[in-house]
Design brief:
The complex is a heterotrimer of chains A (503), B (159) and C (101). By secondary structure, chain A is mainly α. Chain A has 20 helices and 2 strands. A two-stranded antiparallel ribbon of chain A has the order 1-2. Chain A starts with 18 loop residues before the first helix and ends in an 8-residue tail after the last helix. Chain A is globular, with a radius of gyration of 22 Å. Chain B is built from 4 helices and no strands. The chains are: A mainly alpha (503), B mainly alpha (159), C mainly alpha (101). At the A-C interface, helix 5, helix 6 and helix 9 of A face helix 1, helix 2 and helix 3 of C.
Chain lengths: 503, 159, 101
């Protein structure tokens, strides 16, 4: 009976469009195999391997980008995976974040005397998950990408074997992450039930052509999807995990969480809400509006009262998520371009800032109190100067890239007539500026404080190894250059507006 | 036909009844005059102020975890096995890619000694043979040893 | 009495809620993992019954992926728990409070 089974039409695979994903996943698998078989690996090899893989992805994105710009977006694998400008834009951001995290990790692992092939393997796998999310054309594929991204990060958070905080952070992240995944999945199930499809193009087609008599199931699906993705990007009120996890996890991993995970999460939000549910934007926009207001305000206000710089940056990353949500709420091409620009700038800012935190944290990774930063301006003028630029960038001061990013999302909000939201976003940007000001004051104006202390109280910061040094230099330079000449990034983001192709 | 099992069933019932009756009888008949001394965990000695650390057999958990992963991978082989004639080369390539990923994690487990089962001393030798004493990797060998001797990941034997 | 698809969906919703509430209420990490599993399997039930109602295989295929992901997730969670338990046996989530604002 099996012999008579007819041939099933098999889906087409565009291997060239899968190159970034294949490079990342292949590099991870190869690295793990080599590390299991070879007796002693040179210590620099895993980091170098990861950096090469990241750069290879960056290079491979360029011809794909030209292809997509010339011939338009494609979808393949029976419409499960698509490739468009936004996919490639986010893939490039993830590659940058991978390279930066690998550079930081090498210095970190050496300093903490930790074994470390696994960190790089997980980083590559996590980035592969992010790429899957950015190219998902099907809700189930999106879920798989999200889980690949998250599960790898849960383990990465626990990798500091000797710090109980690291494992505690991992457990908290895991429990809340699994909770969020379940919500997201239930949302997918309900949307599937309401529309009869999990493919984004088919859902979008169904929603724009059909009038639903009973839309309760669809609305519940929207809500649950928003909750699930809100958890992943740490939007208030689903942000509870972020400060604890950022504080406990190894600092290079935090850089990845802030830059990579957030970029992938927002890529998913854009694809699902703006693109797929675009014809129903009237229904979900109010929810995102509320979420955005809570997130910008909550993140900025709570950050002011923190005393631990890692927690402070965690809350500021929540505030950044709020600004990104402001761009998502606009539900327009302009909003999407603004979100992508913001993501590009934020990737630089997050990698650079957490590189400084990695250096200042010192052996043991626990000098993150604001005291550790007092008088840094006098003792380590270059490091302090770089941190100052990055903080001003996060605050959105003009002539830094942060200003361009914030301006973009707020302009998109006013264009969509969300004046209240734009106003509140600007107010909370001003509130958030206090946070960065506090660190700046500690950096430059409190050096007298140190002289009173005895030798033990004075925190000496070790010289930065070359890995973090490269990350800091490049990110500061780009933040300044993009602040003055934002054109290239903004134009790229404009060309990267996502498109759905049916399958 | 089932009648031949009747004695066994009768015995089962009798045993259960006997156990239950014993408990009930003891509950009913035994004199109970509790006081502080009797209720203390120990009749003499120091009352423990906190729980004693339990032995925590990490290896069993490890085997359980490995089992869960490899066990669930089978789920993708069943559909393929049923439909492999229909989907031909495409399905074969897909399953091969999947198998490589699974097999590769198996190589990692073997390489890190996750499936070695025996006294810790042997495992320790294996660690130093493979990685040298200064390079220590996470894996089973350290699991359970880590943290007992803070700062020094290699394990000293007894005194 | 006719058992329609709505019954299965309701059962799925009830199980999902039980899992979600359990996760928030219970403090033993292992029980919390069971609650996560309960939530995911409630979604599986929803997928299967919706797929059946729609006459579409997609719902059932989704369950395969969810099952595998759930297994991977639980294994990672167990690994993290084992790493913590090695140091402090009998830990509950409330004992884990090194990280504070």
């Amino acid at each position: 009976m099996f012999a008579q089974a007819e041939t099933v039409a098999t889906p087409e695979v565009l291997w060239w469009a899968l190159v970034p994903l294949l490079v990342l996943a292949g590099a991870a698998v190869l690295l793990l195999t080599v590390a299991s078989l070879v007796r002693r690996l040179p210590e620099w090899l895993p980091a170098a391997w990861t950096i090469v893989a990241g750069l290879a992805v960056l290079v491979s994105v360029v011809p794909l980008w030209n292809e997509v710009q010339d011939d338009g977006a494609r979808s393949f694998l029976a419409g499960a995976v698509g490739i468009d400008g936004s996919t490639l834009f986010v893939t490039a951001l993830l590659a940058v974040a991978v390279v930066a995290t690998a550079l930081l990790s090498r210095a970190y692992l050496t300093r903490e005397d930790l074994p470390g092939v696994e960190l790089y393997v997980l980083l590559l796998l996590s980035a592969a998950g992010g790429v899957v999310m950015a190219s998902a054309n099907d809700l189930i594929v999106l879920f798989l990408g999200l889980e690949l991204l998250s599960i790898a990060v849960y383990v990465m958070a626990a990798l500091h074997l000797r710090r109980i905080q690291s494992q505690e952070a991992a457990l908290k992240y895991f429990v809340l992450g699994a909770f969020a995944s379940a919500f997201l999945l239930y949302g997918i199930a309900l949307v599937y039930g309401a529309t009869g499809a999990t493919g984004l193009a088919r859902i979008a087609g169904y929603l724009s052509t059909t009038i639903l008599l009973e839309d309760g199931m669809l609305m519940a699906g929207f809500g649950l999807l928003l909750v699930g993705l809100g958890f992943k990007v740490a939007a208030v009120p689903f942000h509870a995990w972020a400060p604890d996890v950022y504080q406990g996890a190894p600092t290079p991993v935090v850089a990845w969480m802030a830059a990579g995970v957030k970029a992938a999460g927002f890529a998913a939000l854009l694809r699902v809400f703006v693109l797929t549910f675009g014809s129903w934007s009237g229904e979900w926009q109010p929810a995102v509006w509320g979420l955005a207001i809570l997130t910008v305000l909550g993140g900025s206000v709570v950050a002011v009262v923190q005393t631990d710089v890692k927690r402070m940056l965690a809350y500021s990353s929540i505030a950044h998520a709020g600004f990104l949500l402001v761009g998502v709420q606009a539900a327009s091409d302009r909003g999407t371009a603004a979100v992508l620009t913001y993501l590009g700038v934020y990737t630089l800012l997050a990698c650079g800032s957490f590189a400084v935190v990695t250096v200042v944290g010192g052996a043991g990774d626990d000098r993150h109190g604001i005291d550790a930063y007092r008088g840094l301006g006098a003792r380590r003028p270059w490091l302090a100067g770089a941190f100052a630029v990055l903080l001003l960038g996060q605050a959105g001061v003009p002539f830094t890239a942060g200003f361009v990013a914030k301006f973009g999302v707020i302009a998109a909000a006013t264009e969509g007539h969300s004046y209240a939201l734009a106003g509140i976003a600007m107010v909370s940007a001003a509130v958030a500026a206090f946070v960065y000001l506090r660190i700046l004051v500690a950096l430059y104006m409190e050096d007298r404080h140190l002289e009173d202390d005895d030798e033990a109280g004075a925190v000496e910061v070790d010289p930065a190894p070359w890995g973090p040094r490269i990350v800091i230099t490049v990110s500061v330079a780009l933040v300044l250059v993009l602040g003055v000449v934002p054109g290239p990034l903004v134009d790229l983001a404009k060309d990267a507006v996502p498109v759905l192709v049916g399958g | 036909m089932l009648g031949q099992y009747l004695p066994v069933v009768a015995l089962l019932v009798l045993a259960a009844l006997f156990a239950a009756l014993s408990f009930v009888a003891s509950r009913l008949l035994a004199p109970r005059r509790p006081h502080d001394r009797k209720l203390a965990p120990y009749e003499c000695g120091i009352i423990p102020s906190r729980e004693t650390p339990e032995r925590f057999p990490v290896r069993f958990y490890l085997v359980a975890m490995i089992f869960i992963v490899f066990d669930i991978e089978i789920i993708f082989f069943y559909p393929w096995a049923v439909a492999h004639r229909g989907i031909g080369l495409f399905g074969l390539v897909a399953v091969l890619i999947f198998s490589v990923a699974v097999f590769e994690s198996f190589v990692y487990l073997i390489g890190n000694g996750a499936l070695e089962w025996g006294p810790i001393a042997e495992v320790r030798q294996a660690v130093s043979r493979r990685f040298g004493s200064e390079v220590v990797r996470p894996g089973v060998r350290q699991v359970g040893l880590e943290g007992r001797d803070a700062g020094n990941p290699t394990i000293e034997g007894g005194p | 009495m006719d058992v329609t698809v709505a019954w299965y969906l309701t059962l799925g919703a009830v199980l999902f809620t039980l899992g979600a509430v359990g996760l928030l209420v219970r403090r033993n990490p292992l029980v919390m993992f069971m609650c996560v599993e309960l939530m995911l399997n409630a979604v599986n039930l929803t997928f299967v019954s919706l797929g059946d109602a729609l006459g579409d295989l997609g719902g059932q295929v989704s369950v395969f992926f969810v099952l595998v992901v759930a297994a991977a997730e639980v294994v990672v969670g167990l690994g993290i728990i084992v790493a913590i338990m090695r140091r402090r046996s009998g830990a509950t989530v409330d004992d884990l409070s090194v990280l504070r604002g």
